[in-house]
Amino acid sequence: MKITGFRSEVYSMKLDRELADANLPSGVNILPAAVLFLDTDENITGVALGYGGGVESLFPLIEGEDPREVVGLWVKINDWLHKAGNEGAATMTFSAIDMALWDLKAKIAGEPLWRTLGANEGRVKAYASGLDYSLSDEDLFAFYRRMAERGVDSGKLKVGLDLDADMRRLDIMRDALSIASEKPGLMIDSNEYWSPKQAVRYISKIEEKFDLIWAEEPARRWDYDGLRLVSQQVRTAVATAENLKSLADVYPIIANQAADILNLWGGHSGVTGCRQIANMAHAHNIPVSMMNCQANFMAQVAAALPNHTMMEVVDPGREHCLKFDNYIEDGFIHLSEAPGFGIEVDEAILKDLQNNPPKGKGAFPFPRREGAGRYLVPPEDGEAPWRGKRKH
Question: Is residue 65 located within the same domain as residue 212?
Answer without folding.
Answer: no
